[in-house]
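Retro notes (design track)

What went well: tokenization of the new backbones is finally stable.
What didn't: we kept losing track of which sequence belonged to which structure.
Fix going forward: every design gets posted as structure first, then sequence, in one message. First example under the new rule, 433 residues:
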């Protein structure tokens, strides 16, 4: 179903509910603790940015010498303001990543890092948060009426590691027990949301339309089947998937697909074939079985103990491929895999997984194709781990791309993506025949 209000789960789905509750409790109890407390979250609705006036090269000295630009900021509003300033100088936001939220930190204070590339036009950006699929559909269509279109999505978990006042005179045993119960309380009260970043090209805004398609545990014919039916129906009307995210709606858990109808879509266009995987176990095997039949992975994510993915059928694939996933936060495993990258292994993308109290873009995806050329991967550390978020800045952030990044570009490496692992890192790739 296209998004509508959802009631509580029925009693007929207790096993699935137990899986969610149990896995969520484990996340809360294992999450990284912090001593800082914060106030109640406030959901803010940001105003749409007004049209930027184009800046001349005299006003943009960096644009004359730097193809890429790095922007880091504490707080989404500050980040978008900085990106808009760069957009006046024809820089376009091509990749963005974030630090996981710390204990009791609100989503609007998240620390963001983005890579912008110099283009021939100038761009404008806006953002909004959504804690439900209905909010996402309403707010993105509101901005679409002003010419903005979807660009990036950043999922987050808020309140999973919420801290509470402690009794300083209580024995250590009582403090420990109280902390366990507080974590359990947080496991039921946390929220899952998404920060969406939208873009428009100055002078030629698009007029797109958006739908949020939804599959909910315990309703309909199941998450996968409900999503598949709605996606196929929307595809026949010209909509194409641009993002896949998870939501927690009270005690309900749902997976959504953001579908876009572009004004540039031809009236008669080929209807694409899609497959959806929602699995608690055997996820990678199921994805790779589909890839043998010509399906290619478009989006993936994680919700509690479940992983989900959207794949698109490739007409007449030239070869059979398979996928492998590498957790960049597990350094020994990550370094071992990178050392083996070579012929037929190419970088494909990054997905979010739970890290401490929040999601982090840290799960890297690689494609294996024996007919593909040789690929060389390089990792460049751009920012360090936070040491004091109360200062409102990123510790060690260079605020510009370092020498190693530029040196690799001169050696024909291409910037591919950003990911989190003890700070924000860039992945660059060079393909040789």
């Amino acid at each position: 179903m296209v998004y509508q209000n959802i009631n509580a789960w029925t009693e007929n789905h207790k096993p699935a509910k137990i899986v969610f509750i149990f896995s969520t409790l484990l996340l809360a109890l294992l999450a990284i603790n912090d001593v800082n407390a914060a106030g109640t979250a406030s959901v803010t609705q940001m105003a749409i940015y007004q049209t930027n006036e184009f800046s001349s090269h005299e006003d943009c000295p960096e644009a004359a010498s730097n193809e890429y630009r790095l922007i880091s900021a504490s707080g989404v509003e500050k980040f978008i303001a900085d990106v808009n300033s760069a957009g006046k100088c024809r820089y376009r936001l091509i990749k963005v990543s974030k630090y996981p939220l710390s204990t009791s930190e609100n989503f609007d204070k998240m620390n963001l890092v983005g890579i912008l590339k110099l283009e021939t036009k100038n761009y404008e950006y806006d953002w909004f948060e959504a804690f439900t699929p209905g909010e996402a559909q309403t707010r993105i269509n509101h901005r679409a009426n002003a010419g903005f279109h979807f660009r990036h999505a950043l999922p987050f978990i808020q309140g999973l590691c919420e801290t509470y006042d402690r009794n300083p005179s209580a024995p250590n045993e009582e403090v420990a027990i109280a902390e366990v119960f507080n974590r359990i309380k947080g496991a039921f009260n946390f929220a899952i949301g998404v920060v969406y970043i939208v873009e428009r090209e100055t002078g030629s805004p698009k007029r797109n339309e958006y739908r949020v398609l939804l599959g909910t545990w315990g309703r309909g014919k199941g998450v996968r089947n409900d999503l598949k039916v709605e996606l196929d129906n929307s595809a026949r009307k010209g909509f194409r998937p641009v993002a896949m995210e998870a939501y927690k709606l009270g005690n309900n858990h749902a997976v959504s697909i953001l579908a876009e109808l572009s004004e540039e879509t031809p009236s008669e266009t080929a209807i694409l074939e899609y497959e959806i995987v929602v699995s608690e176990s055997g996820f990678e095997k199921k994805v790779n079985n589909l890839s043998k039949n010509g399906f290619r992975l478009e989006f993936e994510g994680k919700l509690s103990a479940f992983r989900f993915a959207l794949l698109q059928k490739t007409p007449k694939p030239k070869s059979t491929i398979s996928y492998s996933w590498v957790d960049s936060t597990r350094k020994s495993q990550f370094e071992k895999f990178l050392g083996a990258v070579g012929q037929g292994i190419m970088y494909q993308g990054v997905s979010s997984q739970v890290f401490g109290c929040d999601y982090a873009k840290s799960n890297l995806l690689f494609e294996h194709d024996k007919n593909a050329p040789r690929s060389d991967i390089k990792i460049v550390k751009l920012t360090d781990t936070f040491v004091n978020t109360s200062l409102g800045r990123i510790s060690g952030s260079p605020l510009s791309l370092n020498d190693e990044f530029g040196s690799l570009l001169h050696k024909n490496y291409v910037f591919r993506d950003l990911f989190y692992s003890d700070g924000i890192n860039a992945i660059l790739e060079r393909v040789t025949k």
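Added context from the reviewer: Confidence is low (pLDDT under 50) at residues 4-22, 25-54, 386-399.
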